């Protein structure tokens, strides 16, 4: 570790990653935003899924001020967030074969919808099977992952494949294997993960692209406003009434 304060080092590392994503993923971000805009225009629904800490970026898209009202969370019991007790159970469930198919078969997803699958490693059975099964249902899949894991780790799915191998589009977060940006000669393990910061920013860039793409086509993007600004609740009520058949987090 250099002489610079660790806080500054971490922020610099996160900024460098964000710049890489901005410059190296620009085409993929544009394509993902267009795919979601196409889905909205054609009457499809939008869903996001992530397990463990990857769920944080998925949840940041749902019922979000300034975000698309049509983005729904595809929840898998026991793996959403880190409130599962005991915590290692969530990690174990990500490796269970057949769980993704059971979830999708009992979800509202249908042909013509779009699903964002967020998995940093993309190596576990759950995200791999989620992508496979969703595409078999006619759902468009956007994978958000670190492609580096596919060359530096082994898949935990029986096929030997990764999430990136079963998507219509892939967004690479450029996070290094291990998700730790800093080291210190007195600390025995690397530390300071940046995947949540980078993945959330990457996805919000996609949402911004979706909204502006719809607007450029003459379609008002179904955006939510903050409930803490005057008129926000009335605005959101109008959007939810107009798109109620495509919003599932109200029930």
What can you see in these coordinates?
InterPro entries: RpiR-like_SIS, SIS_dom, SIS_dom_sf, SIS_GmhA/DiaA_subfam, UPF0309. The chain is an alpha/beta fold. The protein contains 9 helices and 7 strands, in the order ααβαβααβαβαβββαα. The protein has a 5-stranded parallel beta sheet, with helices on both faces. A two-stranded antiparallel sheet has the order 6-7. Helix 3 links the parallel strand 1 and strand 2.
Give a quick set of tags describing it.
single chain; 251 residues; alpha/beta; 9 helices; 12% strand; SIS_dom_sf; SIS_dom; RpiR-like_SIS
What is the gist of this entry?
With 251 residues, the protein is α/β, with parallel strands linked by helices. It is built from 9 helices and 7 strands, in the order ααβαβααβαβαβββαα.
Topology as a string of helices (H) and strands (E): HHEHEHHEHEHEEEHH
* Whole-angstrom Rg: 18 Å
The residue fraction in helices comes out at 40-55%
Distance from N terminus to C terminus (CA atoms, Å) equals 50 Å
**Residue-averaged pLDDT, rounded?**
93
Strand order of the largest sheet: 2-1-3-4-5
Overall geometric form: globular
Output the number of helix runs.
9
Strand content: 5-15%
What structural category arises from helix and sheet content?
Answer: alpha/beta
Largest sheet entry: 5 strands, parallel
Low-pLDDT runs:
none
Number of strands: 7
Pfam family, one: SIS_2
InterPro entries: RpiR-like_SIS (IPR035472), SIS_dom (IPR001347), SIS_dom_sf (IPR046348), SIS_GmhA/DiaA_subfam (IPR050099), UPF0309 (IPR022951)
Domain SIS: 36-220
Protein name: UPF0309 protein RM641_13165
């Amino acid at each position: 570790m250099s002489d610079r304060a660790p806080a500054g080092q971490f922020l610099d590392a996160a900024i460098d990653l964000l710049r890489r994503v901005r410059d190296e993923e620009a085409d993929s971000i544009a394509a993902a935003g267009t795919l979601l805009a196409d889905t909205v225009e054609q009457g499809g629904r939008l869903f996001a899924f992530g397990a463990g800490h990857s769920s944080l970026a998925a949840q940041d898209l749902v019922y979000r001020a300034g975000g698309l009202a049509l983005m729904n969370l595809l929840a898998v019991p026991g793996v959403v967030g880190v409130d599962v007790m005991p915590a290692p159970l969530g990690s174990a469930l990500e490796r269970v074969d057949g769980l993704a198919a059971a979830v999708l078969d009992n979800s509202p997803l249908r042909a013509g919808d779009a699903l964002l699958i967020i998995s940093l490693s993309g190596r576990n059975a759950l995200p791999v099977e989620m992508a496979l099964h969703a595409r078999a249902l006619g759902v468009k899949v956007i994978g958000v992952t670190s492609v580096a894991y596919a060359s530096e780790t082994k898949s935990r799915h029986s096929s030997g494949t990764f999430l990136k191998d079963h998507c219509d589009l892939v967004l690479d977060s450029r996070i290094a294997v291990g998700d730790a940006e800093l080291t210190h000669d007195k600390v025995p393990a690397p530390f300071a993960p940046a995947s949540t910061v980078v993945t959330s920013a990457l996805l919000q860039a996609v949402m911004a692209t979706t909204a502006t793409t719809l607007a450029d086509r003459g379609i008002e993007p179904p955006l939510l406003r903050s409930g803490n600004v005057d008129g926000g609740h009335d605005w959101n009520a109008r959007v939810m009434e107009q798109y109620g058949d495509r919003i599932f987090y109200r029930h």
